[in-house]
Amino acid sequence: MSKVTTLASVDVEKLESIEQFVEYACTPNRMEQGLDELFTKKGVEPTMKNTIELIRWCNKDILDEETDTLEKNGLQMSDVGRAVSQTVVRWFKVKMLAP
To answer: Which residue of 40, 50, 86, 95 has the fewest C-beta atoms within 10 A of its own C-beta?
Structure first.
């Protein structure tokens, strides 16, 4: 008796759409604006521990300003949230390590 598992199918078009949206919406300018809002104006300490605050800020800003673009692409924030988070973390690490 063999145990065969079926893998879930991957929607390649949706994955590409998510990647393109995140590239479009989660720009360095938006992340810089988030840094300024959180770490300069609100006094949040710019540490890796507080990266979650920047992720939240970017997600909210994208939702506020790009809802129409999400809808046009058949996406929701729940579809792109993880990719946005990963983009913010990668960018923040580079930013924090930059001289």
So the answer is: 40
Q: Is 79 exposed, middle or buried (0-12, 13-18, 19+ CB in 10 A)?
A: middle
Domain boundaries, the chain: 34-97
Q: What are phi and psi of 9, to 5 degrees?
A: -70, 150
Tell me which amino acid residue 89 is: V
- Predicted TM-score (pTM) of this structure: 0.84
**Residue 81, Cα to own-chain centre: how many angstroms?**
5
- How does DSSP assign 23-90, residue by residue? HHHS-HHHHHHHHIIIIIIS----SGGGHHHHHHHHHHHHHHHHHHHHHHTT--HHHHHHHHHHHHHH
Q: And the tokens for 35? A: 């840094």
